[in-house]
Design goal:
By secondary structure, the chain is α+β, with helices and mostly antiparallel strands. The chain contains eleven helices and 14 strands. The strands form three sheets. It has a seven-stranded mixed sheet, with helices on both faces. A five-stranded mixed sheet has the order 11-12-14-10-13. The protein has a two-stranded antiparallel sheet with strand order 8-9. Strand 2 and strand 3 (47-58) form a beta hairpin. Helix 4 packs across helix 7, helix 8 packs across helix 10 (302-310) and helix 10 packs antiparallel against helix 11. The two termini are 30 Å apart. Residues 125-129 have low confidence and may be disordered.
Length: 333
């Protein structure tokens, strides 16, 4: 479904709920660097409402910071999406972001007009055939491609060994990435990542939904409520900080409240070595370390720290994520 299809569908479903007299759409000339898709003019109750529109298939939490940027830039901003999850819609409303969903649900507070519709059922979209690139195994391999884009041109055996996955997965994963245009074939033996930032954003979405739940080990709390996390000496060959504490280590910009640890140690090791107490309500989340880490690293790779902070809900985490992107990721693109 193209962007204009998403827009048409959303407008027509909105018309089923409210009496729109007319509406008109104009594409934006991208040379002007306006950073939105177009202008939408709606006539409702003889009143014209002009909106600057960005159209997306859906929106995940890690994409909200960019949405908020556009909302601050344009006082008449409107997000149109084929589907929005309840959590995302709640954040949009809390930040006064106008939105229109494909099923006609809407939140628009503009020019003395207030619309809030949230009663239409979600439109089911047919899923395409499965793509092996975005399975649990595929996402581990993609993570290593993001860490080292040149890895994609190593032999399939070398890729499998570095990513610690079975050799038979590699051609299926590469074919999946070719099908979705995340990588391009330059010649018989050479590939290149098509759009690194888009590729990273896709990985973030799939990591949150597919890989992250499968590598979760257990929640803990510190045995000592006054424990200073910075004084804990992790076994850096097997365990690293992720998320907020890693963000603080990399940027000195974030006071951690939620602690993420990636490890190859056992639960028993974690309890004995770091005085952690199993607690289903604890503020320490422990995950399996799923990449081949370098020796003596205190934190997960910057890309993973960025990912965890972007899928968090608070503004300060996203600000820290932006610092990490600009200082650790962007210079290597």
């Amino acid at each position: 479904m193209t962007k204009i299809d998403v827009l048409n569908n959303a407008i027509h479903n909105l018309e089923n709920n409210i009496p729109i007299t007319t509406w008109d759409w104009n594409d934006i000339d991208y040379d002007k660097e306006i950073e939105v898709d177009g202008e939408l003019e709606i006539v409702l109750n003889n009143q014209k409402i002009l909106l600057m529109v960005e159209i997306k298939k859906d929106v995940k939490s890690h994409q909200l910071l960019n949405i908020f940027y556009h909302n601050n830039k344009f006082q008449n901003f409107l997000l149109v999406a084929e589907k929005l999850f309840p959590k995302v819609k709640k954040e949009l409303r809390e930040n006064q972001v106008n939105y229109l969903e494909g099923n006609g649900n809407a939140y628009i507070n503009q020019n003395n007009t207030f619309l809030y519709i949230d009663t239409n059922k979600t439109i089911n979209t047919r899923k395409g055939k499965g793509n092996r690139a975005f399975t649990k195994t595929g996402l581990k391999v993609i993570f290593h491609f993001l860490l080292n884009p040149q890895l994609i041109n190593n032999t399939q055996r070398e890729i499998a060994e570095i990513a610690e996955v079975a050799l038979g997965n590699i051609p299926l994963i590469i074919n999946g990435l070719l099908e979705t245009n995340f990588i391009l074939k330059l010649n018989k033996n050479e590939y290149v990542i098509n759009n690194y930032v888009e590729f990273l954003n896709k990985w973030i979405t799939e990591f949150e939904q597919t890989l992250k739940p499968t590598i979760f080990k257990q929640r803990f709390r510190f045995q000592n409520d006054n424990q200073d996390w910075r004084e804990i000496q992790l076994n850096q060959n097997r365990t690293v900080w992720g998320g907020e504490p890693a963000g603080e280590i990399l940027t000195h910009h974030l006071r951690p409240e939620k602690f993420i640890i990636y490890t190859k140690e056992t639960v028993k090791d974690l309890i004995l070595n770091y005085r952690l107490v199993p607690d289903n309500e604890g503020d320490i989340w422990v995950y399996d370390l799923f990449w081949k880490k370098k020796l003596n690293e205190r934190t997960a790779p910057a890309i993973l720290v960025y990912t965890e902070l972007m899928i968090g809900n608070d503004k300060r985490s996203k600000e820290t994520a932006n610092i990490i992107f600009n200082e650790y990721i962007k210079p290597n693109l």
